[in-house]
Amino acid sequence: MKSHKLTVQKTARYFVLGSAGPAIRQVWFICHGYGHLGNYFLKQFEPFQNEAVLFVSCEGLHRFYTNGFSGRVGASWMTKEDREDDIADYIVYLNQVYAKVMQGLDPAVQVTAFGFSQGTATVSRWVGAGALKINRLVLWAGAFPNDVDLKLHQERFNQMSNILVAGTQDEYIKEADVNSLKERLDAEGIHYEMIRFEGKHELHAPILQSLLAL
Fold first, then answer.
1. Is residue 6 in some structural domain?
2. Is residue 82 scored above 80 in pLDDT?
3. How far apart (Å, rounded) are the C-alpha atoms in residues 11 and 102?
4. Alpha carbon distance, N-terminus to C-terminus of the chain
5. Which of 14, 23, 119, 170 could form a disulfide with 31, with the two C-beta atoms 3.0–4.6 Å apart?
6. What's this model's pTM, rounded to 2 decimal places?
7. In this predicted model, what pLDDT tens digit does every residue of 34-72 receive, in sequence order?
8. Is residue 33 within 8 Å of residue 118, measured between CB atoms?
């Protein structure tokens, strides 16, 4: 058996909270976690909406039923199957979303790339792979994936603020994982700020509010 590949056109979607215009001072490109959908994940940012910020919720290109063959639908950024192609595909998608959203905005707008859980690997690869203007990278309940060569991209990542956020009771992230990540970043010379909060694998409103106060 021989595997063959071809490139096809695919319709992808993203969701925007806020109205593009001259008042916009911040744009957040948001990548959800495994099993989320872009529109539902974006609802968690509604309390922070104001005229100066644009929240852009991107969505994984692979949708599936989360329980059996009907009911709730979720999305995933990738799996272990054909992972390199999936990564390349979502980087192309994110670049296109970025170009579409940023068109016509003030060049001085502050751009945050935000990833939650599985989305942290997604935004890390995206930011590391390109030369787009990103002022801040926020990795929430996740980390830089091992396939991102931090030494190779050290200059790129150190051109922006790198914020790591994790709950102290996160059921997927243990203290050993946090310590291992910090050791890796220190060893590779990546500047970062670590923020902890009392909570689980979830967003935390006070920290989100503080991140909006640039």
1. no
2. yes
3. 20
4. 55
5. 119
6. 0.96
7. 999 999 999 999 999 999 999 999 999 999 999 999 999
8. yes
